[in-house]
Amino acid sequence: MLKIGAPERTMPKFELLRALPLRWTLIWLILPNLVIIAMWPIGGPSMAAPLFLGGLYAIAVSQLPSARLRRLGIAVLFALVLGKYVTKSFNVDDLNILHMTAYFGQLQVFKAPEYLLAAAVLGVALLVALKYEARAERFTSMQQLLMAGATVALLVMADTYATAGVRGTYKASAPEGFPVDSAMLQNTIAPDTVAAKNLVVIIVESWGVPNNPVDKTIDDAIWNPAQWSAKYEVDSGISTYFGSTTNAELRELCGVWADHLSFDFGSANCLPGQFREAGFQTTAMHSFNPDFFGRDEWYPQLGFDTIRFDQALQDRGARFCDGVFAGACDHDVPRQIGDTLRERSGSRNFIYWLTLNAHLPISANREMGTDTCDLGLPAWRKDYPILCRSYTAQRTLANSITAEIMRDDFPQSDILIVGDHMPPFFPRALRTRFDTTSVPWIHLTARRDGKGSAPASLASAR
Asked: Any transmembrane segments, and where (predicted)?
């Protein structure tokens, strides 16, 4: 006859389950990484390595005898997770974590609902973690320690699975020894190869190479070579990119894979300096503030004599475009480039302009023309409103460039237009619509016949 009753001892496998530190897992693993976990269904970069290291940190710090030190440890963990997630998301070097507070201070984060929501979630999670930290288990056995390690491993595996679809699309730096590629190098642009009187270089924020046929049709219409062919010989192509916008600036202007925090500006031999030595007046323009990424400090070291940031551009007539990245409206800058060249008709000029308004997130803004979108088919606009705003910002920019450089009185110039990096969309459904390795470029060479003809002295040097 079967005798029913409780077993005299628990089986070993159940002993391990009983050792699972549930409160510790919630307070030290789930809450600090809540934003990462919440992004898994949407997209975002792989955080497997940071999650593993953060988990080891949590295991060690959570066992400290001092409650004050444990709470400080939790706050530090939250800050490190946030900093690493931001740098990974925007392909910037980890050293930027040290400047994160300053960067956020220069942005209008409250203009982006998604950023506000993330900040609210993080704030609440931190308060909960600090309040209930004392209830987290202190490990009293090897089984508890093993189970804590198992939960860390499980979190890492979950992140690896959730971010598999965008693996390889987040690349902050080039592999060691990877050959440098850029639009400047591909077109052999240098002081002795520019036959036109002037050179204008434009790096376009978040202009990527679409790999979806619908998007490609829209992009091709915006940057259609036919609109310039009457005055310029038009060539186009793609080049490899790594990192964020400052990486792109150094890629094009200095021919290096580098970040502004790691590059040795003191020994730089960049193109602006080379053009200055060749007798060109050198000017840099950027529609954002001078403090962001310290451009006011390193632009002069590249060889620029004149530098105009947002306020200087607005003082010269550019309108103000609001948003997270608030500054001068890009579509007013091409006219200022033309005015500068006309004012300096007696000299050769190298003008560099870094655009701003297409920086994600792009709000629905009347000044930028992104409050409405009439691109593509209605179904496409409905399904991809963020993408539609991005292309609308690109169209506004392209139209303003075209309107200026096709004027009869626009001084004779060669013009290079190149993207900095693919649009850094978070949703994988948008991110995977772009080539994750390349950016486009367009090279406009002033024709030597008709209105675009070069002076004989310059044409002979070509």
From this structure: 21-42, 112-132, 144-164
Q: 180 near 241, Cβ under 8 Å?
A: no
Is position 363 within any domain? yes
Count CB neighbours of 365 within 10 A. Answer: 19
Give Cβ neighbours of residue 379 (< 8 Å, ≥ 6 apart): none
Sign of torsion, CA 241 243 245 248? negative
Domain co-membership, 312 together with 428: yes
Annotate 14-53 with b (16+ C-beta within 10 A) or e (fewer).
eeeeebbbeebbbbbbebbbbbbbebeeebbbbbbebbee
* CB atoms near residue 230 (< 10 Å): 11
Domain limits for position 385: 183-459
State which of 105, 133, 165 marks the end of a domain: 165
- Looking up tokens 């607005």 gives 314
Q: Which two tokens stand for residue 3?
A: 């005798």
> How many CB atoms neighbour CB 90 within 10 A?
18
pLDDT digits (tens, 9 = 90+) for 407-454: 999 999 999 999 999 999 888 889 999 999 999 999 999 997 645 443
**Tens-place pLDDT, residues 42-82:** 888 999 999 999 999 999 999 999 999 999 999 999 999 99
Can you give the pTM of this predicted structure?
0.88
Is 3 domain-assigned?
A: no
84, amino acid identity: K
For residue 119, the one-letter residue type is: A
